[in-house]
Design brief:
It is a single chain. The chain is α+β, with helices and mostly antiparallel strands and 623 residues long. Among the domains are: 17-74, no CATH class; 355-572, Dipeptide-binding Protein, Domain 3 (Dipeptide-binding Protein, domain 3, Roll). It is built from 16 helices and 27 strands. The strands form nine sheets. A six-stranded mixed beta sheet has the order 20-24-19-23-21-22, sandwiched between helices. The longest helix is centred in the last third of the chain and has 18 residues, at 457-474.
Length: 623
């Protein structure tokens, strides 16, 4: 997808646990009580001859002897801690229940529709609080089941069976079945879903969107109540990754309430852990826990509050907002304030990039010679010290682009790609290559335009630096041509009538194919054809063995870099700030070293699960 898409966009108390051990000892603690070792007198009764009168035992005739004193470990009874309406027990350091809520901005994407399968770009709610998706991402960016419990690809690779969770019910008590999932996708595509292209790997999605096929012809069916089958138009090993945005909608809600049920708290039917309680369009939304939810990932938080919030670093410091983000466009003074404050610095967390900036060359025969000459393209690449330029221009908010996949993305091999010839900065070698191509010192080289799609400040600075380096190192002059989105797309990708172009590409799902598919000739985006690469990549992408597939996909990325048809430049990223007392399993760094404040890996919506507010003493010196 050639666009940036916003898909994601949070306090003192104590818990007292009482436990009674032996000998009436009472222990009060904030954590688990420690077993006590006590000394106990053991009484051994020595039987003697008894005189029984009726039913009375004469006490005087029973002798007791103290034989020994032993040590006995008494395990205290664990007391139940604070729990929410779903029965989730909070850790001992959690703030009181009334402070366990997430605060987020309202109306970030518009607000015309209540369910994500009605509209992605004009939906009222950023999160998945009231809906359950088919799959989701864990912290390591692995696709995991959530609406389903497992999946299996067919032997021919052309369909997938998803085993659904039988315990899932809607908030009105009706079970969530495969028929609901089928209805959801059919209805969305029949209505021209604005995110429909995302599902184009599914059989007949494009045809239904174009009104050339009926919704019933979609490649989705209910094998039985709890088996959902999805057919693809080609072998699609990454299909489960597409499920992260596919959320089930209740068919009976549309039948009973009509189109706007998902914007009315009185009519809202939830499949997720939260349910809509209050709705003032564009002003305030409130979500509370859905007590009927029986799914696998339960949140600690009792509410999601969406409100019109102040913005800026001062609001974050004052505690008026629960998160803040900075990037290369953030004023240097503000970044300096954060770096100078030890608390703010500790609350700063770099996020993985979802974006790749690159320059492409038009290599089509006869269009813009000598760009069809690999030696010329290699010279242009080797003349740029992009590692230094990225560090200077992005001010620490981007990683150098050694290839297509950003750092922290599955199958990232940047350390290997960095060593490939186009990524090795060598001015003398670049000059020699240009001379070999017939342009010593840049003499006779055409003056090309570098088209840019709506460049930001950092992209413009990067382009200007490259322009200067090519002139200084190779004697080549180019002109920069910033253009609006539509003009750029028409000239560079449709007409393929620009010699060089500077653009970015963002991920759609977490699989290497989301970045690599677009370089295929069949994708129609780039003015470059490489049948050998197309053949290799298509076979790699269709490989059913996951490990072997990733190995082949890595080779395909290496081939792409070696072609020098593209000069990958940068992977911009942001730094997120959130309070230091946001705690829980969900806050632990993943295997790539990244932390998230959403409840799971970036790239899909979450419910802020596995997180809670702990004691806020760590922020006392902030204000």
């Amino acid at each position: 997808m050639a666009r940036r898409i916003t898909r994601r966009k949070l306090l003192e108390g104590s818990v007292v646990i009482a436990a009674t051990a032996a000998a009436s000892a009472v222990m009060t603690a904030c954590g688990q009580a420690t077993p006590q070792v006590i000394k106990e007198t053991v009484i051994v009764e020595k039987p003697v001859e008894k005189v029984v009168k009726e039913t009375v035992v004469v006490k005087e005739e029973v002798q007791k002897e103290v034989t020994k004193i032993v040590e006995k470990v008494v395990e205290p009874t664990k007391a139940k801690g604070m729990t929410n309406a779903l029965g989730v027990e909070f850790p001992p350091d959690a703030l009181p229940l009334e402070q366990q809520y997430i605060l987020t901005g309202v109306g970030q994407t518009g607000g015309g529709y209540g369910h994500i399968m009605e509209s992605l770009y004009n939906r009222a709610f950023e999160h998945f609080g009231g809906s359950i998706p088919l799959t989701t991402l864990d912290h390591d960016m692995n696709v995991i089941p959530i609406g389903c419990e497992s999946w299996k690809q067919s032997d021919d690779g052309l369909y997938w069976d998803f085993k659904l969770r039988k315990e899932l019910v809607f908030s009105d008590g009706k079970p969530v079945t495969a028929h609901d999932w089928v209805y959801t996708l059919q209805r969305a595509m029949a209505n021209g879903y604005d995110f429909g292209w995302f599902y184009s790997d599914i059989l007949n999605v494009e045809e239904v969107l174009a009104k050339k096929a009926k919704p019933e012809e979609l490649g989705i069916e209910a094998v039985d109540d709890y088996t959902l089958r999805i057919r693809t138009k080609a072998i699609t090993p990454y299909l489960p990754a597409i499920g992260v945005w596919f959320a089930v909608a209740p068919k009976h809600a549309y039948e009973q309430y009509g189109e706007n049920w998902a914007l009315d708290p009185k009519k809202y039917i939830s499949s997720g852990p939260f349910i809509l309680a209050e709705f003032e369009r564009g002003i305030r939304h409130k979500w509370v826990l859905n007590k009927t939810y029986k799914g696998p990932r339960k949140p600690y938080f009792i509410e999601i509050r969406e409100e019109t919030l102040p913005t800026g670093l001062p609001a974050y410091i004052a505690g008026q907002i629960q998160s803040y983000s900075i990037n290369a466009m953030t004023p240097a003074g503000e970044v300096g304030i954060i770096n100078a404050n030890p608390i703010l610095r500790a609350e700063s967390h770099p996020q993985p990039s979802s974006y790749t900036d690159y320059i492409g060359f038009n290599t089509l025969p006869g269009k813009f010679p000598p760009l069809d000459n690999p030696d010329v393209r290699l010279a242009l690449c080797k003349a740029i010290d992009k590692e230094t330029l990225v560090a200077e221009i992005y001010r620490g908010f981007a990683n150098p682009g050694w290839g297509v996949l950003p750092k922290g993305f599955p199958n990232y091999i940047g350390d290997e790609l960095k060593k490939l010839d186009p990524n090795v900065y060598d001015v003398e070698a670049a000059r020699a290559l240009l001379s070999k191509a017939g342009f010593p010192g840049g003499k006779g080289f055409p003056k090309f335009e570098l088209w840019m799609r709506q460049p930001g400040q950092d992209q413009m600075a990067m382009a200007q630096a490259i322009q200067a380096r090519w002139k200084e190192n190779l004697g080549i002059q180019i002109e920069l041509h910033p253009a609006d989105f539509q003009s750029f797309t028409d000239m560079s990708f449709k007409q393929k009538n620009t010699p060089m172009y500077y653009v970015g590409y963002a991920l759609d799902y977490y699989d290497p194919a989301t970045f690599l598919n677009v370089w295929r000739t069949a994708a129609g985006r780039h003015p470059h054809k490489d049948p050998e690469w197309d053949e290799f990549y298509n076979k790699a992408n269709a490989t059913l063995d996951p490990q072997k597939r990733f190995e082949l996909m890595a080779e395909a990325e290496k081939m792409l870099v070696k072609s020098a048809a593209y000069m990958f430049l940068a992977h911009p990223f942001s730094i997120a700030l959130w309070p230091c007392n946001l705690a829980g399993e969900g806050m632990k760094p993943n295997k790539y070293g990244y932390q998230f404040n959403s409840g799971g890996g970036v790239g899909c919506a979450h419910w802020y699960e596995m997180m809670y507010w702990s004691n806020s003493k760590c922020r006392e010196g902030l204000k």
